[in-house]
User: Fold these one by one.
Assistant:
Number 1:
Amino acid sequence: MFRIGNTYIPVLVYHNIGQYRDLYTITPVLFEQQMSFLYNYGFSPLIPADLIHYYIGTKPLPRKPILLTFDDGYRSFLTHALPILSKYGFYCLVFVVTQLIGKLDYFNNPSGKYQLLSKVELIEPSRLGIHFGSHSATHRPLTLLEKDELLTEIAYSKHSLEDIIGKPICFFAYPYGASNECIRKMVKAAGYRFAFTNRFTLNEPFEVGRILIGASDNSCRSRLKISPLYPFIKNILSVVK
């Protein structure tokens, strides 16, 4: 959830789209249902490149704005998610792990279960208007690393991705949502304009909160998650527990 002025913008984060559901994988059917709901109820997925203009007030927000993001850069984005997004004319932001491009998702599965996008597979979606950001170089928790390692994860990954797609990279997503003040300063110094976490922050450009959409999120639950009240409901439920 992100707030610009008096407008709350749900920021959703997806991972893998596939036939076999697990914590970070939802089926193409469920993803289609969710995108259909957004389309039919008039939501406007934002063009990521315009986010800075919305934030500083040089461009008005569309009606019922929402931001769609995908973490890790799974190949299923190309095969399952992109055709559905294109069907509805939706924009999104995809975060990739630069040293694992074209490899398997060892960070989520020790043996590597799902294929990640290759360099070639990043280029064509970029030409079609899909925006990319860095999800670090190796997907390690940044709060556990030394400063020289952080430079690789933050700055090197930015330059590496820019070399591949030939466009400036302005967005960063913290692996596991982990950051601190020092890390956020390094992300800003590296030239990023926005950075995303998994916490419910409302108005911090280098700590933009996101809402996870996973296998347990049916149509009703995913609709609740895009409500401006969801962060407050979640906090209340956590206290009750």
Number 2:
Amino acid sequence: MCKRASNCTACIDACDEVMDKVGLRRGLIRYTSATAVQQGKTTWLTTRIKAYVGVWLVLVAIVVTLFALRGELDIQIVRQSGSLWTTTADGVANFYNIQVINKSDDMHDIQVSVASPAGATLRTLGPIREIGPNAIAKGRLLVIVPDSIRSTENSTVTLVVTSNGAEVTRTNVSFVAPTKGQ
């Protein structure tokens, strides 16, 4: 065994040069198996190659499936960091950030509304009404829950996002409010 790194092929190259100089057939030293030397034939379609092809086909099928099943819109709604709540004349309000990613070649008309609690209102603060093909739109939302329907300090608000009249997602977000009576 050569003291150099394995698989360096320096000895194979040197042997082939010598064989060329003396006029003999190349390949006295080569990568092969004992069976291939005895039978005189080699096969490239080994079990390892078949396994690699099988794994590769499974990975390609997974990627194709993921692309085929992905939605046209990716919507994220999160509470604005660093703010708890604000009080307005209509009740307690929380700010939310919304990001809409259009992964299609079509225009989308985005509508956001409050599904629950009943009586809560929503104001959009930013340009998230229409989103063009392969575009990203960011904006802010202000959800206001009147004191008359607010029951606890921390609750959940359900927001519904529709595109071109069809519901795309229904998201539950946390709603923070002061203790009643403060």
Number 3:
Amino acid sequence: MSLVSPLVELFAAHGRDASKSEAATAVGTRDVGDDVLAASTGVVLADISDWGHFTLGGRDGAKFLQGLVTNDVVGLAPGAGCRVAFLNVHGRFEAVATVFSCDGVLVLQTPPAATLWVETFLSKYRRAGDFQFERIADAAAVTLQGPLAGAVLGEVLGTEPGADSTLWCGVTTFEGVMLRIMRSPRSLAGGYDVVGPADAVRDLVERVCAKQPEPPVVIGDGALEVLRIEAGIPAYLKDFDADTVLQEIDESDIVSFNKGCYLGQEIVARIHFQGQPSKLLRRLIVRGDCVPVAGDEVLAEDDEKSAGRITSVAVSPTRGLIVFAMIKRRFYQPGTSVRIRRDDREFKATVVERVGAPATEDAP
């Protein structure tokens, strides 16, 4: 979370102790479970001001970015978005972002772990052509998640934004101030991010609260993490990192094989057309009542060969235990039995589908 939240003082005034949710970062705690349930039935709010938000404009802006990322940003229709990766020459991740075509510019949204790299890297090229790359100054950002998020936001703005698109970005004026509204997946139910000057974002949240019989639930990092894992969304520097080749996260929507050249393309194309990744991000079904933690070792079923490691774990109030692991080639076929080792304990597990296939409610 950002150090200065536009929500804490506001929700305290509405009788909601935001600090309780802010502090609940242990995945699977009772408070987190209650917040996750609220996100599946109504609408919740969270501060995401620590995410990076940038604009890239000018005649050469889209063309410049096109040569640096894995997806087709030149082909984005107005309001549309796509996920992208920045790679090194070996096809491994440097950073990730979501890029939107919005109001005549490209808007880049980056997770906290990638923000500094993206800003530093793209800033080096400010004088390389007719484009302007800028961080959205003095911005705050909140997200509304849940099946009622669009209706609640639409009641305040006068129209429900981007209801038919998974990735969407638009501009609205709220009390004379421009805000960007983004639809970007953070949960199974979906929702919207609002980005703009801190005072305007705070005023919008105040208006949302005033129109509801009870203040919406404010959630913290713990609940956002459970929602992410429920939705099967891999996280940079948690589920994959600079040692991961693009295809190893098994997310087809982050790359286009029909666009022009970009850094790392040769390795990506070679794996796509001729080979298999040396490891893949997979979900595991864990037997018994043990809950693994990120970093636990995954072993072959019948010997001491390493099969991978656990990357993300959540205890969902509706879907139970959800476990992501980076699994080596010999073991990543669905149905493969493995063991998880933590200290002197071991428990059995089965490799199942790709992480991007959300956990079903009847999953063990």
Number 4:
Amino acid sequence: MHAGRAPRCQAPARPVSHLPDQLRDGPLDPRYLGCLPMAQVGFAEAARRAAQRTFLPGSESGGFGQNDVAAPHFFAWRAQDDAGRLLESALAPLAMIASQAFHVTGRAVPPALEPRLAQVRAAAPVLVDDIHAPGPGAAGVAARLRADVFAGSVA
């Protein structure tokens, strides 16, 4: 590819989401959630890898004449649990960013999402004037998502 055309392959220069840049009110606004997308991508990729199929593991009989294969259930169970936890961890930053976007823009939250937004904000309050690490809040949101999955309350 010609170097002069490379910038055309990148994201557009103007935002298309109608959200303020970095969900800030201006360049001096200290609120920053830019580290969350990086973590979200990492969790999503790890979840994708954990969700791959489980192969039948071969067994070594050790000379005892057994030629079965090991049961894959234990490996598959752990893999699905890992994939689920990683998916919840990937969704948590997305929920936090959405919460902050509703706060910064002052937009109304759809009524069906109000209970979920309240849960997200209980675990990870919106950034107002302070700066704090988003990790503990993301962990709280992921734990709430997991609790809802196993309680059967996810709509």
